[in-house]
Each structure stands twice: as structure tokens, then as C-alpha cells.
Amino acid sequence: MDASDMGDDLERVLLSEEQLQSRLDEIAAQIDTDYAGRDLLLVGVLKGAVMVMADLARRVRVPVAMDWMAVSSYGSGTKSSGVVRILKDLDTDLTGKHVIIVEDIIDSGLTLSWLLSNLRSRGPASVEIATMLRKPDAAKVEVPVRYVGFDIPNEFVVGYGLDYAERYRNLPFVGTLAPHVYGQ
Length: 184
Ligand code: XMP
Ligand code: MG
Description:
Layout: E1 10-15, H1 17-34, E2 40-46, H2 50-59, E3 64-73, E4 84-88, E5 98-106, H3 110-120, E6 126-134, E7 147-151, E8 174-177
Parallel strand pairs: 2-3, 2-5, 5-6, 6-7
Antiparallel strand pairs: 1-8, 3-4
Helix pairs in contact: 1-2
The structure holds xanthosine-5'-monophosphate and magnesium ion (MG).
């Protein structure tokens, strides 16, 4: 899917495919330096992190294992509440492992803050966070994030794993939607 498949649903491109991919080159190089000589487990958060996980994991040169979690945060529509339920847990025992949580976006930070303490309670050697996007103006809790792709304005975005009503996840870029898509 590309911008030309969106008709007039696309308002604007916030981050192009080239911007996303070249930032991932930089983050992967940083991870290679930070984790040299160690085994690493990448934990992707479904479904939004599928794209960043696939592209980041292919760029990293240290050996990695990959596992997935699905969580749902109770709350209305596009707002996160911080009350999190595990829909799919990891298959991997985290004891003694070096873990990076791979996320698409940090908005309020509530979901990730919960996830971080949940994973830390399982006895890993270390847990860090990598996120493609972060909205600093939406932060409700401070989450220590080691790897950030881009800080973006506090607007609802789609593409590169992020959806509106399950659509647009397969856009290779990140953009905003025209108001008529939301029924306005
Ligand atoms: P919190 O607020 O807990 O929420 O950091 C993180 C989760 O909320 C979703 N989210 C978005 N999804 N466009 C989306 O498609 C957005 O702009 C957006 N902001 C937050 C996302 O699932 C993320 O993992
Ligand atoms: Mg997500």
C-alpha cells in the first residue's frame, strides 16, 4: 500500500519510508555496539510493532531471538488507561536474558510503563525499550527509553504498523489522516 492507494484519505506524510529506514540503520548500529558479545531477545508488542520488528531485526548484526506479546489496555477508543491485560504472553523464559521491548509508538507511556515492570519482575539480566515513534507532549508517565526513532507531535498517526480501525498498518510511511476519515 502506498499514498497513491489512499485517495484523499491521507492528510500529510509525517515521516517518509526513507526517513524511517535510515533511522533504523542508526538504531541497529547502536544496538550492535551496546550488545556486542551478548545474546539478545527482541520482544515485539503486537500488532503495531510488526513492521519495526521486521525491519530492525534484519539490520541488527548481533544474534537475536524474537518473541511477541499482545496486550490490551482498557480504555475508550484511542485513549490508553494504563490498566493492561495480557492477551498473548511470551513463549520465552526471561531469566538471565538481555531484553529489548520493541514498540511502534509511545503515547501516554502507560502501556509501556506497565509492560516494563511486568517484564522486569521475570528476572531478566536487563530490559531496554526501542520505539519507532514517541509523542513527548502526550506523556503521562516517564518511561526510560533507550532507543527512539522520532519524536512526533501529539497527533493521531497511521502507517508503518499503526492503524485506524485496523486499516493503514501496511503503509510504508507514517502519516496523518484527513478529518473526513474520522467522520468529521
Ligand atoms: P500509551 O498511551 O499507553 O499507548 O503509550 C500506546 C498504544 O496506543 C496506541 N496508539 C496509537 N495508535 N496511532 C495509532 O494508530 C497513534 O497515533 C497512536 N497513539 C497511541 C498504540 O497501539 C500504542 O501501542
Ligand atoms: Mg502498540
